[in-house]
Every structure is written in C-alpha cells, then in structure tokens.
C-alpha cells in the first residue's frame, strides 16, 4: 500500500461502540432470529456448490478485515434485483442478480467487502442508537423497521417513517456517512485480500450511470445511495493503491454459469442463447465454464446425450473439479446409473473425505439407488457438522421415511421447522416422535430434551 493509501485508512473512525443500544451477544440473537425468518419467507438458495463458493469468498475477505467481532454467514437469495445486504450477527445476503451484473470476481468481492464493513462497524446498531436519541419509538419497532428496510427497501422505508420521528435529511446524512465508511474500509479489505480495488468504483459508477434516470431503481440504490461524491471518493481511494491485474477465478466463472443455468429465472432456450453468445467472445478458461453451464441446461431439460458430450471432456481435463463431478452425478442419477454415480462420489471422497458437498451428493445418490439405510450415517454426521443446512435435514427425513423410522423422520422434520423459526411445528413434531418410541428409552430421553431446548428457543425468539 502506498503512503497516501495508509493516510486515507488512518482517518478517524466515526465510531463502533453502540454499546448503549445493543451488545454483541444481543446482535447475535437478533441475527439468528432474522435468519430463521428469512429462510421461511424468502427464496434462499440452498444449492450446496453455490453456498460453498459464497462462503469461501466471503471468509477470504473476512480473514483480511479489521474489527471482526462475530462469526460470518454468507448466503444467496434467488432474486434478479441487484442487491446485497448485511444484518446483525454477521449475516450477509447476496442476490443472485449480482452475479449477472458483476463483470468479474473482484466486482462481486467489492460489494461483499462493503457489506462486511457494515457489520464490523456495527452500522445497524449505531443507526438505532442515533434514532433512539431523537425518537420515543420502542427498540423493537426500530429493529423491526431497520431489518425490514435492508431486505425489502420499499416496505422498510415506509416502516421507518412510521416508527421514527427523526427528519428525513438526518436519516439520509447518517446513511451516507455509513456508506462512505463502509466503502473506505471495504476497499482496504479488498486490497488485503488480493482483489482489484478499482472494481469498487467501476461497479458503482456503472450502476449509477445505468439507473441515473430510472423511475424504479434497483433495491441496492434504495439501501445504498450512490451520489456522485461517493463514487468520486471510492475512485480517489482506489487510486492510492498500486495497480494490480487480478485474474477471475475459475470457481467464480463456474458459479456464475450455474446461476445463469439454474437460478436466473429464464427458460432453457434463453439460457442456451446466452451461453452461446458468451462463447463467441470467451477465452479458453471462460469457455470451459460456459460449456459447463450449457451442460446443466441440457441436464435440466432432459437432453442427457448432449449434456454428456459436453461433460465428458470437461471431466477428463479436470477429474477433481467438484462442479463437474456434481453435474456428472446428476446426469448419472437421471439416467438411472446409480452405481456409477456412487462410485464417482466415493472416489472423490477418498481425496476429500470431509468435503460437505460430496458427502451430501453421496447421501442423495444412495437414496436414489434405494440404499437409504446406508445414507443415514452419512447424513447423521453431515447434519452434526452442518446443523443449519436444510438440505441435510431434508435428506435425513427422507432417508428415515424410506426405512420406516417414523420417529426419526419427524425429528428431522422438526429441525427443518426450527431453522425457519416455526417453533410450534418443530415442537409438535418432536412430541409426536417421543410418543412413538418406547417409554424411558434413550430415544425418548433425547427427543424430550430437544423439546425443552426448542421451548426455550421459542420463548427467547418471542421476547426479541
């Protein structure tokens, strides 16, 4: 970093205390509660490969961020709107539309780095503290309206107007100060993580130019105002860092292709047309990812021969590529080649025995092959290691249903309900499970203990 850049980053902090409003522990509780509500109300993308990619990218940035006080969780929402938002407890949501709009991985990383800074600088808590000084609104009302505003800007802004009495100009000024601070800290995180810092002003500038006169700007511009002064500021800050040429990672290209193929809300013909147009101007590395995307479209539309013709050379060139292994496994299962799918995954797991995506795929393949009993130990370990992943609990419930273990099926479904904050349903599932097993058995003791835990969680959730 140049001396000028060092000086830029030594500017006085606006402040990160917010201690009089919320403790870190209370923020974590609110974040967990809101995450459960989002799972129940928004189209959260549960795709294991995409979840792994955004978690890895996010944690690469967190590893180079300052003032990290909470764990971080990064997740995708299926929405073509250009947006990302952060909330209490280190949760960062990324709309799938960002992958379609960002030109490269550094641009995507610049948005995530900005959101990480909102968390580390405790901007939500500080906003509440600022509003509490000016308004008699209850803390619960302010938290509710702020949470709503970051996820659903139009509804949230109306809620803020209804629950706070501060002037509109005061809110705008406070938001702009937060945005500039998040930009400054985000650019530094971007640089330390090895990304192109010019990506942030480039992305912001393109976004502002495209929607300057739009009657309905994207949600990102409602929650992240982009006046020209802010764009100029990020450009000036980025110019203090040495120029760096950064290659976009293969995983980013594959993740983007997967989103276009499966989560862009376009039909197969439109997706294939997009991939073919991109292939005409792509280089060698990009071509492999684009062809992978085409293969996914062919798989999902039942054109298995075309898919295999594309996947076979891709797998031959990169036999350990998990995106290709996943696609080939899907294809095997659709063609009822279950043993081939299982062997492929078992071989991959020999090199990566604890890899979560491969384990989940193996459990799914075993169930499709009619070998559900063998999937149970795989999924039991998986749900222990990944207790907040709905995929594992869903497959575990299916596995137990297939072998006739109704009590264990109900328990797994209870965990699914709990992940969505549907506490009454979760508790009822466990009560029914407890009634199905022998009195005073170890299973009954385990189910009853979980009922107590869920009732405690329900009460805490209600108090929030």
From TrEMBL:
Membrane spanning stretches: none
Domain Peptidase M48: from-to ranges: 50-237
Subcellular location(s) of the protein: Periplasm
Cofactor: Zn(2+)
Mapped TPR repeat ranges: 288-321
Enzyme class: hydrolase
Cofactor notes: Binds 1 zinc ion per subunit.
One GO CC term on file: periplasmic space
Binding site for Zn(2+): 114, 118, 179
Active site positions, chain numbering: 115, 183 (proton donor)
Keyword annotations of the record: Hydrolase, Metal-binding, Metalloprotease, Periplasm, Protease, Signal, TPR repeat, Zinc
Listed InterPro entries: Mito/Outer_Membr_Metalloprot, Peptidase_M48, Protease_BepA, TPR-like_helical_dom_sf, TPR_rpt
EC number: 3.4.-.-
Job of this protein: Functions as both a chaperone and a metalloprotease. Maintains the integrity of the outer membrane by promoting either the assembly or the elimination of outer membrane proteins, depending on their folding state.
Family: Belongs to the peptidase M48 family. BepA subfamily.
HAMAP family attached to this UniProt entry: Protease_BepA (MF_00997)
Name of the featured protein: Putative beta-barrel assembly-enhancing protease
Species name: Photobacterium marinum
């Amino acid at each position: 970093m140049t001396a000028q850049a060092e000086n830029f980053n030594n500017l006085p902090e606006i402040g990160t205390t917010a201690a009089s409003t919320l403790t870190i522990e209370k923020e974590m509780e609110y974040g967990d509660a809101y995450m459960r509500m989002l799972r129940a109300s928004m189209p959260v993308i549960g795709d294991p490969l995409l979840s792994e990619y955004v978690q890895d990218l996010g944690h690469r940035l967190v590893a180079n961020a300052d003032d990290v006080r909470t764990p971080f969780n990064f997740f995708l929402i299926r929405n073509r709107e250009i947006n990302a938002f952060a909330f209490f407890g280190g949760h960062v949501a990324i709309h799938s539309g960002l992958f379609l709009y960002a030109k490269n991985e550094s641009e995507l990383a610049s948005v995530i780095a900005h959101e990480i800074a909102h968390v580390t600088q405790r901007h939500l808590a500080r906003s509440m503290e600022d509003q509490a000084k000016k308004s008699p609104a209850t803390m619960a009302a302010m938290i509710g309206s702020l949470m709503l505003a970051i996820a659903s800007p139009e509804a949230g802004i109306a809620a803020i107007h209804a629950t706070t009495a501060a002037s509109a100009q005061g809110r705008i000024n406070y938001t702009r100060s937060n945005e500039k601070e998040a930009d400054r800290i985000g650019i530094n995180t971007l640089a330390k993580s090895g990304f192109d810092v010019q990506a942030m002003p480039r992305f912001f500038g393109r976004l502002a130019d495209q929607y300057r006169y739009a009657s309905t700007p994207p949600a990102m511009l409602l929650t992240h105002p982009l006046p020209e002064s802010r764009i100029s500021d990020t450009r000036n800050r980025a110019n203090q860092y040495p120029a760096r040429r950064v290659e976009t990672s293969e995983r980013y290209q594959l993740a983007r292709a997967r989103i276009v193929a499966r989560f862009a809300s376009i039909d197969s013909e439109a997706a294939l047309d997009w991939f073919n147009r991109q292939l005409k101007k792509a280089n060698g590395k990009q071509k492999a990812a684009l062809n992978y995307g085409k293969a996914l479209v062919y798989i999902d539309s039942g054109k298995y021969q075309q898919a295999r013709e594309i996947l076979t050379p891709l797998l031959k060139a990169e036999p350990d590529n998990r995106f290709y292994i996943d696609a080939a496994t899907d294809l095997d299962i659709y063609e009822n080649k279950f043993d081939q799918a299982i062997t492929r995954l078992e071989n991959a797991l020999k090199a990566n025995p604890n890899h979560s995506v491969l384990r989940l795929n193996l459990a799914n393949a075993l169930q499709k092959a009619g070998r559900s009993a063998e999937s149970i130990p795989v999924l039991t370990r998986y749900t222990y290691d990944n207790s907040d992943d709905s995929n594992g609990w869903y497959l575990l419930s299916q596995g137990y249903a297939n072998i006739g273990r109704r009590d264990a099926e109900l328990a797994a479904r209870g965990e699914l309900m709990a992940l969505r904050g549907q506490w009454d349903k979760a508790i009822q599932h466990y009560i029914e499970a407890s009634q199905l097993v022998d009195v005073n058995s170890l299973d009954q003791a385990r189910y009853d203990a979980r009922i107590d835990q869920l009732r405690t969680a329900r009460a805490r959730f209600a108090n929030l």
